[in-house]
């Protein structure tokens, strides 16, 4: 059973999410909070798999609260559910450890799917926000992971740009099979299990400049 806590100062939204989640057999809402202070009193006693929160809340905003949760309870996955499409909010949430970023107008099935995916260690970014992510440039303060070979860095850059394995292979003049081998090595070295997780890791650790 995937246990969820909802954090939002709007009761109507919490009620809607609680009803939606309650219709699923494999998940349930175990707590609700209107803001950071209330959530912080809950977590020592309740250990949810997933926290779903808004960004704009009283006391502490969702980005700062995400940072606090990941520092104190790194095993808890955070999904930011917000009306903001701003690049600044999106990048800040991802960098502070959010596993998912969804807009409040997302279909209900997308929210339910996101809860399942992040509880399994996946990361969820809607296509519209992925395009924004790829439009940003973070050349300043770029950090490189010395464990990745130059070729693996090239493959990782192709992944971040949204290229398929075949497109990466064509760009680098190597076979699809070789790309798969490089991708497998990247996943192992970065300790991730999917392309979306590798993308999130690359962004959070500034491994590649995003063009």
Automatic annotation (TrEMBL):
Domain Response regulatory, first and last residues per copy: 3-119
InterPro entries hit by this protein: CheY-like_superfamily, NreC/VraR/RcsB-like_REC, Sig_transdc_resp-reg_C-effctor, Sig_transdc_resp-reg_receiver, Tscrpt_reg_LuxR_C, WalR-like
Modified residues (4-aspartylphosphate): 54
Transmembrane portions of the chain: none
Domain HTH luxR-type: 141-206
The keyword 4Fe-4S belongs to this UniProt entry's keyword annotation: no
SMART domains xref list: HTH_LUXR (SM00421), REC (SM00448)
Short name of any one Pfam family annotated for the protein: GerE
Domain of life: Bacteria
Keywords: DNA-binding, Phosphoprotein, Transcription, Transcription regulation
Gene3D superfamilies in the record: 3.40.50.2300
PANTHER family: TWO-COMPONENT RESPONSE REGULATOR
The protein, known as: Response regulator
Originating organism: Planococcus chinensis
């Amino acid at each position: 059973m995937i246990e969820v806590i909802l954090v939002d100062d709007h009761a109507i939204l919490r009620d809607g999410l609680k009803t939606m989640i309650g219709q699923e057999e494999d998940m349930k809402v175990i707590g609700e909070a209107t803001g950071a202070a209330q959530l912080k009193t809950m977590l020592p006693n309740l250990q949810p798999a997933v926290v779903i929160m808004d960004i704009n809340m009283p006391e502490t905003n969702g980005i700062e609260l995400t940072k606090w949760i990941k520092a104190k309870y790194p095993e808890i996955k955070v999904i930011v559910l917000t009306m903001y499409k701003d690049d600044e909010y999106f990048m800040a949430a991802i960098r502070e450890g959010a596993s998912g970023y969804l807009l409040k107008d997302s279909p209900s099935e997308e929210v339910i799917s996101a809860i399942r995916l992040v509880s399994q260690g996946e990361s969820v970014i809607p296509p519209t926000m992925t395009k924004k992510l790829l439009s940003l440039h973070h050349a300043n303060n770029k950090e490189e992971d010395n464990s990745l070979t130059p070729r693996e860095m090239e493959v990782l850059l192709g992944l971040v740009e949204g290229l398929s394995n075949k497109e990466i292979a064509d760009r680098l003049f190597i076979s699809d099979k070789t790309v798969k081998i490089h991708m497998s090595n990247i996943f192992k070295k970065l300790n991730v299990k999917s392309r979306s997780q590798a993308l999130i890791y690359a962004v959070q650790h500034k491994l590649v400049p995003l063009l």
